[in-house]
Amino acid sequence: MSDKEINQLPLADAFTGNEKFPLDKPTGASPDEHNSRHGLLSMLQAYMAGQNTFFTPAGTIKEAGTNGAAKGSTELRIGVTDEYFNFDTLDFDWLADEFANLWAVLPNSWDKGTLTFRVVWTTTGESNNGIAFYVRAVAVGDGEPIASSYGTAIGVTDNAQSAGSPSSFNELYVSDESAALTINGTLANNMGSFFQMYRDVSHANDDLLADMKLLGIIWKFNANTLKDD
């Protein structure tokens, strides 16, 4: 290893090339020096692995062909200025359960455990009433039927935060983090996962008499490796 202070070592070089931390004790290295290198390596691994998040915007989520949510597109403008805000939504009705599906391949660094999620949404309803939103999932591998049984659905509830005025239109809401979501199937690298999501209008908290306009979903998973080999 070249003569550099720890704070001068590029993180990307910590495991590759001339700056690689030796896992074997270098010739002439003292036990303390060797243990310090291993301690730093363990610290970097713990920092770089662990919990990770990714976001899927509504525009990447497919409305179901049967009882599907409606695709929406909105442009907002501040007064008469040229400040425009454009975004896609999936609009879930309040009269009946409606569905949508997401197809994704999770990173190989995923530990194949449970996921959690947060729902990002808005509404044009003049209410501080709430919604209930559920997700269930299944993983499908090479040679397996795509139409496989979903796992148990996990839900979150959330409420709009303004009432009785158009001030509640198009506010952004982020739900609390869900309980653990188990993806059904035998999990392995390079598998596709199908996520089915729906608004549960029969839930006690779902009393918003307007479309729930889904903006996207924040997913969280645990990684137990540093790379996607």
Describe the structure in your own words.
The chain has 229 residues and is mainly beta. The protein folds into 2 domains: 6-48, no CATH class; 52-223, Sandwich (Jelly Rolls), CATH 2.60.120. Helices cover 8% and strands 35% of the residues. The chain contains 1 helix and 11 strands. It has one helix at residues 31-48; strands at 50-57, 62-63, 70-77, 84-92, 99-105, 116-122, 130-140, 154-159, 173-174, 192-199, 212-223. The strands form 2 sheets. Strands 1, 3, 4, 6, 9 and 11 form a 6-stranded antiparallel beta sheet that branches. The protein has a 5-stranded antiparallel beta sheet with strand order 2-5-10-7-8, with no helix packed on it.
Top keywords for this entry?
2 domains, 11 strands, 35% strand, single chain, 1 helix, globular, Jelly Rolls
Tell me the radius of gyration.
23 Å
What's the order of the H and E elements?
A: HEEEEEEEEEEE
Gross CATH architecture of the largest domain: Sandwich
**CATH H-level name of the largest domain... which superfamily?**
Galactose-binding domain-like
Query: Into which percent range does the helicity of residues fall?
Result: under 10%
Structural class of the secondary structure composition? mainly beta
Which shape, going by the Cα principal axes? globular
User: Averaging pLDDT over every residue, what do you get?
Assistant: 83
Whole-number count of domains: 2
Measure the end-to-end span. 25 Å
Low-confidence stretches: 4-9, 14-23
CATH topology of the largest domain: Jelly Rolls
Total strand count, please?
A: 11
